[in-house]
């Protein structure tokens, strides 16, 4: 007899509606913390980048703005009746992805212009300090969100957490570029880092749109019952 290969079943709900709401509240709190951090980070990076003429710093600041808006989306997603809405989850995932595609073209064009024109960015101590701060804080937020995302089955939340971790990687690249410029006059590192930011933004945007790297089941499918239904305009 031939063995019949069955398609893998979709993961069943691992948490109760009550536990889901509790964890969703934690996600919302973490997103508020991220929003505050990204607001400060974005403003400081853009101002410091404008003063120093650093496209990498400006690009990092714009990336912070993108991540801040992602936090707003997650706060929206887990507020009110949308908390139990599968449609809201899907919309949040797509909205988070779109932001990457908005960021990438600007940073790429400005980086190429800086390389072709030979624009030398000034030394930015503020920028280097900001990069170190992001290297320390962003992984903590990102890992916490991704752990909760695995339990509640939220690809949108996991995507936002991955953005925070990505921010730490970009902060490391930014620090290398700024330090290289300050220590050995490697001015070209700044726009090269800008191109790296743009390339990573495209990659992350594509993966977020397709749901890659967010292989978590949605426990919303297993809730059902009285009180679990959604009644907002995000529902099917």
Question: Would you write up a description of this structure?
Answer:
It is a single chain. The protein is mostly helical and 236 residues long. The protein has helices at 17-52, 55-77, 86-117, 125-152, 155-184, 189-210. Residues 1-13, 213-217 and 222-236 have low confidence and may be disordered. The chain starts with 16 loop residues before the first helix and ends in a 26-residue tail after the last helix.
Furnish the topology, listing elements before pairings:
Blueprint: H1 17-52, H2 55-77, H3 86-117, H4 125-152, H5 155-184, H6 189-210
Helix pairs in contact: 1-2, 1-4, 2-3, 2-5, 2-6, 3-5, 3-6, 4-5, 5-6
Number of helices: 6
* Number of beta strands: 0
Oligomer: single chain
User: Average pLDDT value?
Assistant: 77
Q: SSE order in H/E notation?
A: HHHHHH
Low-pLDDT residue spans: 1-13, 213-217, 222-236
Strand content: under 5%
Judging from the principal axes of the Cα atoms, what is the shape? elongated
Percent of residues in helical segments? over 70%
């Amino acid at each position: 007899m031939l063995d019949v290969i069955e398609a893998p079943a979709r993961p069943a709900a691992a948490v109760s509606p009550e536990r889901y709401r509790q964890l969703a509240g934690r996600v919302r709190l973490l997103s508020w913390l991220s929003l505050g951090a990204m607001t400060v980070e974005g403003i400081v990076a853009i101002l410091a980048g404008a003063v120093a003429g650093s496209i990498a710093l400006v690009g990092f600041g714009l990336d912070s703005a993108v991540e801040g808006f992602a936090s707003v989306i997650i706060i929206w997603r887990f507020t009110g009746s949308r908390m139990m809405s599968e449609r809201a989850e899907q919309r949040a995932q797509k909205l988070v992805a779109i932001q990457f595609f908005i960021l990438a073209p600007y940073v790429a064009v400005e980086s190429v212009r800086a390389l072709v024109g030979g624009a030398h960015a000034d030394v930015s101590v503020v920028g280097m300090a900001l990069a170190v701060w992001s290297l320390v804080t962003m992984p903590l937020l990102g890992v916490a969100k991704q752990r909760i995302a695995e339990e509640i089955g939220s690809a949108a939340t996991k995507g936002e957490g991955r953005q925070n971790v990505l921010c730490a990687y970009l902060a490391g690249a930014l620090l290398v570029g700024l330090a290289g410029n300050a220590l050995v006059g490697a001015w070209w590192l700044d726009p090269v880092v800008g191109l790296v930011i743009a390339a990573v933004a495209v990659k992350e945007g594509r993966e977020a749109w397709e749901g890659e790297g967010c292989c978590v089941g949605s426990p919303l499918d297993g809730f059902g019952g009285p009180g679990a239904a959604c009644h907002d305009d995000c529902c099917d």
